[in-house]
Amino acid sequence: MAVPCVRVSVEDGEATRRRLADDDLVDDAHEITGEAGDLYIPVTDADAVPDDLSVVDFDAPERRTQTNPADLLGYEPTYERLGDVVIVDEDDPERARDIADALVESDVRAETVVDRASKIKGETRVRDWDVLVGDSTEAVHREYGHEFAVDIAEVYFSPRLATERHRVVEQVSEGERAFDMFAGVGPYAVPMASAGAEVVATDINETAIEYLRENAARNGVADRITAVAGDVREVAEDYEGWADRVVMNLPHTASDFLDTAVELAGDDCVLHLYDIQHEDDPFGPAERAIRDAAEPEYDVTIETRREVRSYAPHELNVVVDARLTRR
């Protein structure tokens, strides 16, 4: 069966494989294959492959020697990877332990396996974890060419939002000024700085800001990011009318901070407001809240309405991109 592969010359094969492996994009379930002077490297996510690489469909053979957790369990477990930390979400402790054991015995790279032990809680948006394998909840996550150190026991981070973050970053222009109101460890701020923006990033979680500064240095953009630990409503006083772009990734409560976002906005500013709403009207509440906060000082144009992911039965995590133009 054809699978997405990066096609490169044999001479560039190993360097390209390492590059894709650094971003966790190599599909270990299929063999790297040579044909007519080219190598075909199977990838897990064609959309995440850097634009300078060629992705084609190729009939790469399956790897026969790989052992998957499903081979050991007799069913397909649900899990996600964050660097070398593997995350499961099981209500049954015995089932969680069985999955952890199978992950370790399989060919999945896992130094730590954790099970979610609570929902996200508190203003710092962290949760409790049961550590099933290993002794560290710290990982280095690679995403679209960037590295992020993160401790999931101390800060909020979701690898599931990588595509959405990349969508926003692709809109960033060289020299623009971007404000990330709830920045976490920097998954928006760092790539925006890499794209040429001057970034101010705030978070109420001081540990998250420490990681953000580390990640800015790790990715070579420390000189373009100002990271501030504290309430964004207090920080905004120093950046009134400053921003060309404002990221508001705090679903459930971001709308409560729209007055602050408008205070930050310059004469022409794009807001990325994330929200969680019922599927019957997923975008209306955010759009109405933006207009209530920005008009009549600004004209409001809704540029994008997008479902990011399903959040719960009949509830959606959505984003509204709104352009504010000062009258």
UniProtKB/TrEMBL annotation:
GO molecular function, one term: methyltransferase activity
Biological process (GO), any one: tRNA methylation
Keyword Chloroplast among UniProt keywords: no
One protein family per Pfam: Trm5_N
Keyword Cytoplasm: yes
Keywords, comma-separated and alphabetical: Cytoplasm, Methyltransferase, S-adenosyl-L-methionine, Transferase, tRNA processing
SAM-dependent methyltransferase TRM5/TYW2-type domain boundaries: 79-326
Alphabetized PANTHER family for the sequence: TRNA (GUANINE(37)-N1)-METHYLTRANSFERASE, TRNA METHYLTRANSFERASE
Protein name per UniProt: Class I SAM-dependent methyltransferase
Organism of derivation: Halobacterium litoreum
